[in-house]
Amino acid sequence: MLKHWKLAMLATTISLAGCGSIIDDPDQAVKERQKMAVVLSDVGLGDQSFSDAAMSGMALLREKEDWFIDYRELGETKTYKVAFDTLAKEKPTVVVGLGFMGQAELEEVAKRYPLQQFALIDAVSELPNVLSVTFKEDEGSYLAGAAAALQSENETIGFVGGMKSPLIEKFEKGYTAGAKAVNPDIKVLVDYAEDFAAPEKGRTIANDQMKQQADVLFAAAGLTGSGVLEAAQAKGNKAIGVDSDQTAIAPDAVMTSMLKQVDLAITTIGDTVKEKGLQSGQIVLGVKEGAIQLAPIRNVTFSEKDLKQLEQLKQDVLEGKVDVQ
To answer: Consecutive 10-residue runs of the chain (325 residues): their mean pLDDT?
Structure first.
């Protein structure tokens, strides 16, 4: 399934890069257009999560604002450094790095190209030519945890992280805080796979948590998370996806997904550098900005009382009335 998804995304990308107005000098037209060059996350296209969401943002820039789009996967370049260096040499409007794992290499290359605009999603750089975009993942995870707790019959839920890091711990802490907000006695099982590209490892962890009575699982683990969702479905339990709506992975198990609108981060970067030129600093996106939210509820039923509670919790998050960690 993932292979077919990746092929579809690649076809879309080829279409994006190749289509445009009929002109006499295509090369000159490309020079005059804004260009975004993106280094995808280590998993790459087909993750039905981070990279695919970024691709959606690039598609929006191409379709609505006529940007020229380019990208690299680590399968091609082998290292982040080679990918960033290759794209920087092409002098696009902005070179974007997805995820904290490539930060050191992005900064190394950015120092060699001080007049080139870079952008980093999911990490913060202090360099003068790097614009950082981060999310309030704990806000969305808080709402996901509340929803999980309201659905758990065993008063035990699970969290599976891809890699123990400050970023993924934001998901964990928000999820736990949200669950405890609606049920202080609920048990939250936490495990880290230390791998974002190991679905089988995700299945193993999920099965272990379900043996401990966890009946709703939340995975912030990239491709590893697909194994978690599939394991939950196999056992007749519920799961919560991440980054994009992951219902397609486990259509009978996914009750919602914590949407992290990476596509909005991509378009925000494009709009910012187009309007303001070389930028640094940090842009933070959360529930208030429409960048963090829950996908539509499926496969479960909430009482009217529970729905009102979830809506009130969302309002409390918007107004900064709750500690989401």
So the answer is: 40 39 40 88 77 91 93 89 97 96 97 98 97 98 99 99 96 98 98 96 99 99 96 99 94 97 95 94 96 96 97 96 87
Q: Where does 85-210 show beta strands of DSSP type E?
A: 94-98, 118-121, 130-135, 156-161, 187-192
CATH, domain 138-260+295-318, list 3.40.50.410, 3.40.640.10, 3.40.50.2300, 3.40.30.10: 3.40.50.2300
Other beta carbons within 10 angstroms of residue 264's beta carbon come to 21
Say how far apart CA 275 and CA 2 lie, in whole Å.
37
Distance from C-alpha of 7 to C-alpha of 13, rounded to nearest angstrom: 10
* CATH topology classification for 2-135+262-285: Rossmann fold (3.40.50)
What is the Cα gyration radius of the chain? Answer: 20
Q: Which residues contact 132 (CB under 8 A, 6 or more apart)?
A: 119, 120, 121, 123, 124, 125, 281, 282, 283
The backbone region for 155, taken as left when phi is positive above 0, alpha when psi lies in -120 to 50, beta otherwise, is left
pTM: 0.85
**Cβ atoms of residues 36 and 80 within 8 Å:** no
Name the 3-class secondary structure at 254: strand
